[in-house]
Amino acid sequence: MKFYAVARGRKTGIFTSWPDAERQVKGFAGARFKSFKTKQEALAFLADPADTASTCSTKNLSDTPKKRKNGRRQQAGHEYPENAVMVYTDGGAIGNPGPGGYGVVFETGETFSGGFNLTTNNRMELLAVIVALEALEGETRPICLHSDSRYVVNGINKNWAKAWKRRGWKKSDGTPAMNPDLWQRLLNLLPGLNIRFIWVKGHAGDPLNEACDHLANSTARMSGLPDDTGYLKSRIDSR
């Protein structure tokens, strides 16, 4: 199977058949696309289509975890357990609030994306994590989840979300904690999982983070996105 990555066309993303990909680029001025043998190579191309080196081999993904002599993996200053599931998430909204999307990329190549016609950056960051963990329900291996959202990572690692929940979804100053519907969904997914939340710097050249960003942004620009009912309800409740 080949993977056809369309970085610029009527619809961007990865396609598994040439006729589908061709419809996105044929007659489209400035179209940019390329075929690959692996999905990971296609993702690297989408993350940086101007970087021709990234289209040659997955070994060019210099931030991909590597084996160490002690049997553990290391990436960007972090050590990972053997056989860890590596997943990256990202989300954002154009205008914030505005049309938004999220992206999830596993090191193995699986991807998930989605979006809404009106939402916020933080909601999409949270939803990306939720979608990733829903896909990992019942996973017994260690999970290393990477996000460039300090809001999400600190919300779990510093127990902000649990504290907000204990106070009835209030912050320490008594003001409402935002996005309780998504935080509750996320907290419900954590029991039973061996998971680490790791913050990564966004737009810093990490191929999988950049691929997530591309998925999120391209989805946010799609037409016909559904309503984010949780966000709409929060606006009504705050009036």
From TrEMBL:
Mg(2+) 2 binds at residues 90, 213. Monomer. Its EC number is 3.1.26.4. Binds 1 Mg(2+) ion per subunit. May bind a second metal ion at a regulatory site, or after substrate binding. Mg(2+) 1 binds at residues 90, 125, 148. It is an enzyme of class 3 (hydrolase). GO terms for biological process: DNA replication, removal of RNA primer. GO terms for molecular function: magnesium ion binding; nucleic acid binding; RNA-DNA hybrid ribonuclease activity. Endonuclease that specifically degrades the RNA of RNA-DNA hybrids. HAMAP family: RNase_H. This is Ribonuclease H. Residues 53-63 have a biased composition (Polar residues). Belongs to the RNase H family. NCBIfam families: PRK00203.1. One of its GO terms (cellular component) is cytoplasm. PANTHER family: RIBONUCLEASE H1 (PTHR10642). Residues 81-221 form the RNase H type-1 domain. It comes from Desulfobacter latus. Residues 53-80 are annotated as: Disordered.
